[in-house]
Structures are given as C-alpha cells and as structure tokens.
Design a protein that fits this description.
heterodimer; A: about 425 residues; mainly alpha; two-stranded antiparallel ribbon; 18 helices; B: about 260 residues; alpha/beta; six-stranded mixed β-sheet; about 40% helix
C-alpha cells in the first residue's frame, strides 16, 4: 500500500500514459475500411467531423469557451484550399491543409484577441456574429467565392504525387485518418500539458486563475487559435474530399451541429468527439434514408434522450455504468453519481422520463408509415398508448434493476 | 530588517454615486500582522479587490515592495508576490486537491505556458504541492475532488493555494468564514503559523481572530479609515466601541469582550 503522498504523485505522473482502450477508436476506424469498403466517402466525412468536434472540445470541453460560430474557421480552411486551387493554381493537398491550418489559426488569434475578453452569452453572440460576417462577406464577393452556388469541380493533385483520389474515397479515407491521428496526437499532448491544466483551471474558476497570476486572456487566445487551426484543417479536408465548396460551410447549422456532436459524445474527454460525431453522423444518415422529410425528428429524439439520461454525453453515461457495476461510491469513475435512498420517487421520475421518451419514440416510428405527425394520437391511439406505457415501464425498469443489483437507485447529481 | 511590503496611498473608489473607498492609506511592513476591521458594508472586501487589482481605483496608488502596481492587472500583481484568499471559496471544484496546488505552482513558475510536456513530468512541482498539503494536513485528501470535501477543508485548500504562490504579501479575507466553530481553530492555527516574513492583512469580523493575531489594526468605517493602532489602543478606543456596538449590536460586542480576555 502506497502512502498518500506517493499515491498522489503517482496519479499525476501516470495520468497521461496511454491506456489500451485508447486504441479502440483507431482499430474501429481501420476495421471500417475493410468491413464497409463501399461506404468510405461517408467514412471520410465522419472522420472530418470528428476532427472538427475535436477542435471544439479543446476550447469548449477544456477551456470552457462557449461558441456557436466555430464553423467560421472550418469555412476559412475550406475556402483557403478551394481558392488556392482555383485562383492561384495551387492544388497540392498536403501543403493545402497546412496553409489552411495556419491561416485559420491566424484568423482565430486575431478574432480571439478581441472577443475573448467577454464570456458567457456575450461571447456566444460574438462568435455567431463573426461567422455570419464571414459568410456575408463571402456572399458580397460571390465573384470570388462562388456564393451559395459554390465552387464546383475543384481538382487536387494526387497525394504525395502518387495516390490518386478515387471514386470510392479509399485514398481519401486513409489520408483523412492519418491527418486526424497526427492532430489527435497534438491535442492529446496539449490536454495533458501544464498549459492544458491551466485551461481546465480557467474552465473551473476564472477568478481564481486571475488571483494565482495566470495570464488568462493569453491562454484563451492561444488555445482559440490552435482550435481554429484544427477546424481549418478539417474544413480544408472537407473541400478536398468533396471537390466542392459553398458558403453553407459557414452556416449556423454547421456550428450548432458540431456542438451537438461534441456534447452527445461528452465534452472534455478527448474521445467524446469520436463517439459523438460517429453516432450523430450514422444516425443522421440512417434517419434521412428512413424518412427524407422528417429525419430531423430522429436526431431530436436522440438529443432528448441524451438530455434525460446522459447529461455528460455518451462517454459520461459509460463511466456511470461502469461505476454502477463496480458498485463503488465516490470513485473517480462514478463521481457524479449520487445515490438516492428515496426509491419510489426515483422510480417514479424515471418512469415519467420513460413515458415521455416512449411517446416521442412512437411518434418517430409512425413517421415511417404515415409521414403525418398530427395523426399520431388521434389516428393511432393504441400505438401512442403502447409506446408511452412501454417507455414508462422501461424507464422504471432500468432503475428497478439498479435497485436489485445495488440495493439503491441512482440519480445524477444536478450541476452545481 | 524592515521594509515596506505594501503601501496604499489615498485610494478612492465609488460605485456610481456611492463612494465605497475614501482616501484610504495603509502600510504593511514586511512580516506585518495587520487586521482590517469594520462593520458590515464598511468597504473591506472592496479594499481587498482594489489592492489585488480585481477593481481599479479612481485615484490613489498601490505600491508593492517599492513598485507602483496601480496599473498592473490582477495576474501581474499576483506574480509579483501578492496573494489573497476569498471570503467565499474560489477553488477548482471539479479538480483534485493536488491538481489545485499543482496548477498554482505551475502558473507561479511559468510552466503553464508549456504545451508539449506532460504536466506529470515535473516531479518538483508535484513534490512541492504535496509539501504544501503536508503542512496543512491535507495530504490524505490529495486525490479527492475539491467539491467532495467538507467546507472547512475546502477553506484550508483556499489557504494552501495562496501559500503555494509563495507570496510576500498575503490578504486573508475572513479566513474562517462559514466554518463551524468546532473546526475553525484548525484554520486559525494555520494562520498563526504563517511564515514570519510574509506580510499578512487579515480582514475579519471576528474579534477573537483579530485580537489573537494582529499587531496592528485599522478600523474602516463607511469606506474611510476611522482609526488605526495597536490592539490595545483599539480595544480601549471608546469611539470604536461606539461604532461597533452602535451598528453591530450585542453580538459583536460580546466578541470584543472575549478578545479583550485574550489580550
């Protein structure tokens, strides 16, 4: 048994060590290539969104900067390679993404220097405004940018002078995966560095950071620029993958979507972006085939579920489950779980949550057949009833099982 | 060897039309044990905020170790050896106690500009952090999250962070506030054992605390220095009694009485 001192030192010294589950996302990504060789164009898009979400994780998850305008930097990167290729004749892909990263990072530093004096809602509005300004300027000079019609038919040189972009996106998949791995390596180092620690400090308590002498503004601008650069690289890859770009890359939608992906996966966790972006993209793809008109309802349901059951994202949920199974209280894994001895109210509230979800799920299932949202309750009362009650039973059931296993019911501690 | 550690000259600050700090002068010698007392709303915390740079004065100067720091930011002042604790805990609640300390040391020594090396690679930092925790008997809580600690222990972390800054001037804003009296002696012991080289300014309501530690007392009333003197002088100052008894009622008077016995 180590004494408290050694345990403490040990924890910090080992924290950044690579653990074996960390290989999992990469193995899955490689396996996907062999299992779904005909879906590699889509696979490349998923990897790009992972990279984009990762850039957001660095500022939102670690530094606590809330932004709904991160698409601005994605767009800067996307247009850098497009315009370099079309207007300057520079079509070499790798120098293209490096240049995009540098340019987006520079823009991030300049913008960040101005807007990171503010926090909270003010900052949120400024980030939205900046993305909108870029989009509008692009629209104003549509002679250069191609406006909302976009710049089609971009051609890029073969990778490293040898590997041609192919119709199935095979080359592209490996290319994007490699870039993602390199960027991930950088991000991981940053997160575990003293600088990364200072970022979590800013997220946790900015007043204290000022009081201990931290140059908060400089730290924030630095990480904002790095994040912008990564978003820029993601944007550049997006253009290269599609050989096409329009001003919609600056859309508010794009900014919001990447935030949803990140939150769905879990913020401040490094692998949250992987899970969140992959799940979101795959479900989006699936739902849009299921119901081309109402596919967004499926995504909405997913978010409702996440908000009810996984406030800290899917990875947070996994941590809680692990803590629950281990039956440990107050362990690092289950630190946000509090145990509630008031069984009946816990069962009741989970039953209610389940009922709401069941009702919405019935709604979603109905879409496939009827495509008529209004007729759900009036037109199919049996299904509405079955789904609602079923949802309630499942909700209560989940907690009842926890009750049987652990002798207690679990609820999540409200954010303080 | 005595030298002036902190000097406040003619400090003024108003919130709108309300002056909250009026022509305050204050001098802390090196190793000073100075108390700042005054009834509620006297502007004690505002004064701390002005000294640390959380607020800017409308006129006047703050001089730290001979250097005019009036126009420096809060962080720059902190790096020059001015540390504070907050009346209400300001901690990194979601991090472990040890991380709270490592962060402070990292920022103090400038490690936190490093984006590349692992934070765990600097054993010196970790060891120093553990030393600080050791001296406040917090080592057993090193790996607990701050928010899981009882309030009294959190209060100690607050002080540990300030000490880890290796300050030359330390401002303690009601160090024992909110701590049950059964535990407050722990904190007061720590305060009593502070390095004699550090100049300490204690802001407190509790006359027990004040008369136990202070060698000098400044009384602040309605934003201005009402009087200044040794604990003896303040204790026997009829005007101070009137201010305290008049505005704070029986409770504070009771504490003052206890303080007198300590003296």
């Amino acid at each position: 048994m180590l004494d408290a001192r050694e345990r403490g030192a040990d924890y910090l010294v080992r924290r950044h060590y690579v653990r074996w589950p960390e290989a999992l996302p990469w193995l899955i990504a490689i396996a996907c290539f062999f299992v779904f060789p005909d879906r590699m164009t889509f696979g490349g898009q998923v990897l790009i969104m992972i990279m984009f979400a990762l850039s957001l994780d660095l500022i939102l998850g670690y530094a606590g900067i809330v932004t709904l305008g991160h698409a601005a930097f994605f767009g800067v990167g996307a247009y850098t390679v497009a315009l370099a290729s079309l207007r300057l004749g520079w079509s070499e892909p790798i120098s293209g993404i490096v240049g995009s990263g540098i340019l987006a990072g520079f823009v991030g530093a300049v913008v960040g220097w101005f807007i990171l004096r503010y926090r909270g809602l003010t900052l949120l509005m400024l980030t939205i405004a900046f993305a909108a300004m870029l989009q509008e300027s692009g629209n104003l000079r549509s002679d250069i940018t191609g406006g909302y019609d976009g710049l089609p038919g971009l051609m890029f040189d073969p990778l490293l002078g040898t590997f041609q972009y192919d119709l199935y996106g095979h080359t592209n998949y490996w290319y994007v995966l490699t870039v993602l791995a390199v960027i991930f390596y950088f991000v991981r180092r940053i997160v575990y560095s003293p600088f990364g620690q200072a970022l979590t400090g800013i997220r946790e308590n900015v007043r204290r950071m000022h009081a201990i002498g931290s140059p908060v503004h400089r730290r924030l601008v630095t990480v904002y620029a790095i994040s912008a650069a990564i978003a820029g690289v993601a944007g550049a890859l997006f253009t290269q993958t599609n050989a096409y770009v329009t001003l919609t890359v600056f859309d508010f939608d794009n900014s919001a979507k990447v935030m949803v992906m990140l939150i769905l996966g879990g913020t401040g966790r490094l692998y949250g972006p992987f899970l969140g972006a992959a799940v979101y993209m795959i479900l989006e793809d699936y739902f849009s085939k299921l119901s081309p008109t109402f596919w967004q309802l499926g995504i909405g349901l997913l978010l409702v579920l996440a908000v009810l059951f996984a406030r800290r994202g899917l990875l947070g949920l996994a941590e809680d489950a692990r803590g629950l199974l281990a039956g440990k209280r107050g362990s690092l894994a289950s630190r946000r779980l509090v145990w509630k001895r008031d069984y009946w109210s816990a069962l009741g509230s989970s039953a209610f949550d389940g009922a709401v979800i069941g009702f919405l799920a019935g709604f979603a299932v109905n879409l496939k057949e009827a495509d008529l949202m209004t007729s759900y309750v009036t037109g199919m009362p049996e299904r509405a009833l079955v789904f609602t009650l079923g949802g309630a039973a499942i909700g209560a059931g989940i907690n009842a099982v926890a009750l049987l296993i652990a002798g207690r019911t679990a609820v999540e501690e409200p954010p303080s | 060897m005595t030298a002036t550690a902190l000097q406040v000259e003619g400090l003024n600050r108003a919130f709108g039309a309300l002056p909250v700090t009026r022509d305050v002068n204050l001098t802390l010698e090196r190793g000073a044990r100075h108390a700042l007392i005054g009834p509620n709303g006297a502007g004690k915390t505002t004064l701390v905020n002005l000294i640390t740079g959380a607020l800017r004065p409308h006129s006047g100067r703050v001089v730290l170790n001979g250097e005019d720091i009036t126009n420096l930011s809060q962080a720059e002042r902190a790096r020059r050896g001015l540390a504070r604790t907050f009346q209400i805990n300001q901690l990194f609640r979601g991090l472990t106690v040890l991380e709270n300390l490592c962060m402070t040391i990292g920022e103090r020594d400038g490690h936190c500009s490093n984006l590349w090396r692992s934070a765990g690679a600097k054993r010196v930092v970790i060891d120093e952090a553990l030393d600080h925790l050791d001296s406040l008997q917090l080592v057993d809580d090193a790996l607990r999250l701050v928010r899981e600690l009882p309030y009294g222990r959190q209060r100690l972390v607050e002080i540990a962070i300030a000490l880890a800054q290796k300050p030359r001037v330390l401002l303690l804003d009601e160090p024992a506030a909110g701590v049950p009296s059964s535990e407050s002696h722990l904190i007061l012991d720590v305060v009593a054992a502070l390095d004699p080289d550090i100049a300490v300014l204690i802001i407190d309501h509790d006359m027990d605390v004040v008369f136990r530690f202070a060698r000098e007392i400044t009384v602040l009333v309605q934003g201005a220095v009402f009087t200044h003197g040794t604990p003896e002088e303040i204790m026997h100052n009829e005007q101070v009694k009137a201010v305290y008894l008049g505005q704070e009622g029986h409770h504070e008077g009771h504490h003052a009485g206890q303080g007198a016995r300590h003296g």
